Amino acid sequence: xxxxxxxxxxxxxxxxxxxxxxxxxxxxxxxxxxxxxxxxxxxxxxxxxxxxxxxxxxxxxxxxxxxxxxxxxxxxxxxxxxxxxxxxxxxxxxxxxxxxxxxxxxxxxxxxxxxxxxxxxxxxxxxxxxxxxxxxxxxxxxxxxxxxxxxxxxxxxxxxxxxxxxxxxxxxxxxxxxxx
Length: 180
Hints:
Blueprint: H1 2-61, E1 73-77, E2 90-93, H2 96-104, H3 113-119, H4 124-130, H5 134-138, E3 140-150, H6 153-158, E4 164-174
Antiparallel strand pairs: 1-2, 3-4
């Protein structure tokens, strides 16, 4: 009877060690999978950004006239995640006339000053103010790219319950055709 009672604590210790080992193993697998996933996501983000830049660069030096019109943003507010510049953020649309009034018109103290500024040769602000399309005058071209990255099963089940993550990039560049 004494021999039987002595076996129970050692069996308990082995069982406890097995449970501790499994908990540690799950934590290590989650950490390793998370690390691999972050590496994959950052590599994909770099590739997407480079592809968008290449597209915008090709369009910037192209001789074809490209008419991209950017969104004019008046106000930016964080979305439900309270993180700025994320997918769920919302912005208030503005229009080109609001851009002209806020940015370009402030170049002259009074509206009558535009008569003087308009007569100055090579005054790009005057040209910008009287241009029918500010974005066209600035010559902005856009490049975009996106990729979907599948999540590793360990990450999906242990960390983030989704099948994949979409990575998108938008790049704006000024046209450079005719500069040189």
